[in-house]
Design goal:
Layout: E1 11-15, H1 20-33, E2 38-43, H2 50-61, E3 65-67, H3 70-77, E4 83-86, H4 93-102, E5 106-109, H5 117-130, E6 134-136, H6 144-154, E7 161-169, E8 187-188, E9 191-192, H7 203-213, E10 224-232, E11 241-248, E12 252-259, E13 266-274, E14 277-282, E15 286-291, E16 296-300, H8 304-320, H9 329-345, E17 349-350, E18 357-360, E19 366-370, H10 374-384
Parallel strand pairs: 1-2, 1-4, 2-3, 4-5, 5-6, 7-12, 10-17
Antiparallel strand pairs: 7-13, 8-9, 10-11, 11-12, 13-14, 14-15, 15-16, 18-19
Helix pairs in contact: 4-5, 5-9, 6-7, 7-9
Length: about 400
């Protein structure tokens, strides 16, 4: 089997070096510096771009073999790579992952696993056929913090789990949706993408919510949606704001609310409420636990770079020990199923233009599209477990949609 021996540095391939792939390259540098890995091959599609040219020069200094396309890399490096990193657009996750598996490589693919159930199943079938495995870049899942909280919930620290709620507000400029050809799209490059806050920037926290709920065996069956408000402020195919409510099997309620169209920033948080207490996960800050039994605990958490470092170290350890926990395809498939079912359950609704505030640049270009009062409405709905239309903070102005 093609895995690194205990005395050898794992051989790594990286597909892409710019965009989010640049963050992966940053993640690799400390491991390269200390000789913990060998970056053997990389795919750089367009080396004429300044950022790509700079990265190519750096990789050449590490002795990395550089390819202009993934097919060429898979053909040449088959059987010679232990782990392939795939931080590409969603539409390419499945086809590149399947190709890497058949080339004898284990895979770390960026979240989400894929844009459709069909693509997810193609990946899982390739795992079964090749005997290789896939880890998915839901970085928080790999941490001791997430694994520990999950274990405590499973052990009954909060009693019977009643609800999982998650809120996050990250305003994004108009340029966010023009940064590539698939941002905000439902389909691109002949594959489902379903790009949205819940399937991209905030996908981590939807997946974490499902992960924690699973401690109560709450996601064994299909999710039951009660209602879903999917709002579109920007000129995109998908939605940029959502409040979704429902019930997971096992009678656990869920409330997920995320937006890119607010004035305010609210760092993501997840609230777990049980019959005996509650736990709050605050992104890159801390976990707060309070129980009726007198437990009062605040545990700090690392920042995003720290989470990614832990993720990569766990994946490297998995090469040597199959028992090391990672975010595998079975877990990540639940997130994809949730997203697919959400799009089947509810359509996207345009927010009326007169409710949208435009922030202009000094040159008069539209920089941000935002809905005044939306942030307060999201926080209010989070607190009450309610909807946007039902929020007093919006005074019913969205009801006309």
């Amino acid at each position: 089997m093609n895995t690194a021996s205990p005395s050898s540095a794992p051989r790594i391939a990286l597909i892409g070096v710019t965009g989010y792939a640049g963050i992966y390259l940053e993640m690799l540098r400390p491991f390269l510096k200390h000789g913990e890995i060998e970056l053997t091959a990389a795919v750089i599609i367009n080396r004429t771009q300044p950022a790509a040219a700079t990265a190519a020069a750096e990789l050449a200094g590490w002795g990395v073999r550089i390819y202009e396309n993934a097919d060429a890399m898979f053909a040449r490096e088959a059987g010679r790579i232990d782990l392939c990193l795939i931080p590409t657009g969603i539409a390419w996750h499945a086809r590149l992952t399947v190709a890497a598996l058949h080339a004898g490589m284990h895979v770390l693919v960026e979240k989400p696993l894929a844009g459709s159930r069909v693509d997810v199943e193609s990946i899982r079938e390739a795992e079964r056929e090749t005997g290789r495995w896939v880890a998915v870049g839901f970085q928080d899942i790999f941490s001791e913090a997430a694994q520990g909280l999950r274990a405590e919930v499973e052990g009954g620290l909060l009693g019977r789990l009643l609800s999982v709620q998650a809120l996050g507000l990250w305003p994004r400029p108009v340029a966010y949706y023009t940064r590539n050809h698939w941002a905000g799209r439902l389909r691109a490059d002949d594959a489902d993408v379903l790009d949205s806050p819940l399937n991209n920037a905030f996908a981590h926290f939807v997946n974490l919510g499902l992960f924690f709920a699973d401690a109560a065996r709450a996601t064994e069956r299909a999710v039951e949606f009660a209602d879903a408000e999917l709002w579109r402020v920007n000129a995109i195919e998908s939605f940029d704001t959502a409040v979704v409510r429902g019930r997971l099997a096992g009678d656990v309620r869920f409330w997920f609310g995320f937006s890119h169209a607010t004035r305010e920033v609210h760092e993501p948080e997840i609230l777990l409420t049980g019959t005996l207490g509650r736990a709050r996960w605050i992104h890159e800050r801390q976990i707060e636990i309070e129980t009726d039994g007198g437990v009062r605990r605040v545990s700090p958490m690392p920042d995003a770079f720290g989470f990614r470092q832990r993720m990569f170290r766990a994946v490297l350890a998995r090469l040597r020990n199959p028992a090391v926990p990672v975010c595998d395809t079975a877990l990540a498939a639940k997130h994809t199923a949730f997203i697919c079912d959400l799009h089947a359950f509810a359509g996207v609704v345009d927010v009326p233009v007169h409710l949208v505030e435009q922030q202009l640049s000094p040159q008069g270009e539209v920089v941000h599209l935002r809905v005044p009062g939306l942030g307060a409405a999201m926080r209010s709905a989070y607190t009450t477990g309610g909807t946007l239309v039902g929020s007093a903070a919006l005074a019913g102005v969205l009801a006309e949609t």
